[in-house]
């Protein structure tokens, strides 16, 4: 076998075929990688490797067409038939020679992630998983091409047959859809011939055992069939050899059955054992929170996917299957509205929803989740093109499950009437995702804060609360109420009653705006703050993400200046969540028109608190209107110095981290009895940090990789061919 491998490998480069394959495959792949990564600044090589399937569709038949066809035509195959080695060794040796040429290209492409890492952060796991998939996919297609080459002595026919079979495999999903949208026995058989879909699993960032076993079995099966084809030529058809033919046919049937059984067995294993997610954001993995939540699920929940099984979203399907495996009470079913229109009669509000939308149902309650809500988008307003930036299926499905199994939903009220800012749409979306009902609250029209208030939001009042309004808010807090509040640097001079509310937690706000001198703590301007984020349950999604929270024109908060107030509680535990560096200072007399923020002699330098958590112990929480002390709960407040913190603009500055922080706080505040706040999973980022490649460097590298190296390979091949021809 070793001698056959050396002979065939050398023959590929004694002629022009091997050189041509290397030059074309390297040049075309380098062109796409160069355009997308070096010029487009995408750090992930996997994003362009899908095009390799098209190039291999053309180049692999050319590479392999002579493997057996030419020898059969030249009658040199008689040497193989009479060689003192097994036919299997001959076939495998020839196959390894072709595989080695394909491997050289893949190994060359493996250098690109290392090169790109010089210009930024590269997702190595994703990139090399995709390259491994490309290598394995190419090997499986080579095995098919070798088999077809053994069937004919005409190299052109061998190449055409190989191209036709590989092309048929590529369009197999389309053929399945044409036959049946819902799937049947025929489509299942056709699906077994679909090689590119297995390649896609690696491109998507998954090391998938089922795909590896499938592609490996394709290699084994077609090399075995090739061996059987060559083996037949050692025997003439006679009465004595018919028994061997029957044995050979039986062996083929046995091997085919074992191959099918192995693939079926692997496909029956739970995805937790067969699929490993290598994406940087864990795109195809469930979080531990979701797994724990589903394991505790004690009510039956049905999830209907409005799509045929052939049109499923692969990422969504992976998430749903893992969730289904995590709970015996969860069942997923695909329903095609086109073939089953009566199904939607019960759910009239989803008639205009997109394909692959979900209906989550338990008992008489259901919640529809539009497919467009499963992904986060950004819009380039110069071109009005949308770009997918996040995947939120896990969080949205968790939210829908919590909704349908909850008997009641938490109520959030947002105080109005004092110039408060409305929170941004990103933050109301958080409330919806947490199944919180929310509405404005005008205390002029209400005698008290409503009893069903699970959380009160006061977002930067400009004018002072009336004494009566402050009393109502304080009564709510003394009864164990939860509060999220911000201060406004443009507030009126006299904020006596508002200060009473803050003083309940022993907190006061500075008269002025905090500015940073440390460049690591601000963005562009000293008033655009990126404070230090403390490690806490509420901030876990921020600290595990990009680590930033954006605050603009923030006031400083102090936990000791107001403790002399009569209404301040003595049992208050204050935890700083957001703090500046030691080089910050407070600049007074700031308005929206202030342009001069230069530090003055009166401005005090130091470290300031911009956000905190204050907890009033239940024993000091005041009167709640109940006779039993056991029913009293301590009040919890999250207080921040910037009214702009909960605006969409601030959230976009840090890629959604402000909203993630807000989600953590709301989850902590909302009463667990509602069930809807039992879990909150943030969207998983799809965006990769762009590379920083100098234009001249990109042009030089592209010139070398796309032009110089392929041209050198072609010249080397031409020279080798000419030299050997003259001998």
Alpha-carbon distance between the termini? 28 Å
What strand order characterises the main sheet? 10-9-11-12-24-23-20-17
Question: What's the story with the biggest beta sheet?
Answer: 8 strands, mixed
Rg result: 34 Å
Helix content: 40-55%
Show unreliable segments.
236-244, 620-632, 672-677
| Strand count | 25
Alpha-beta content class? alpha+beta
Please report the number of helical segments: 25
Strand content: 15-25%
The coarse overall form would be elongated
Whole-number mean pLDDT: 86
Task: Using brief descriptors, characterize the structure shown.
727 residues, four-stranded mixed beta sheet, 25 helices, 45% helix
Notes on the protein architecture:
The longest helix is centred in the last third of the chain and has 32 residues, at 695-726. By secondary structure, the chain is α+β, with helices and mostly antiparallel strands. Helix 20 (467-478) links the parallel strand 11 (453-459) and strand 12 (482-486). It is built from 25 helices and 25 strands. Helix 3 (52-64) runs antiparallel to helix 9 (155-170). The chain has an 8-stranded mixed β-sheet with strand order 10-9-11-12-24-23-20-17, covered by helices on one side.
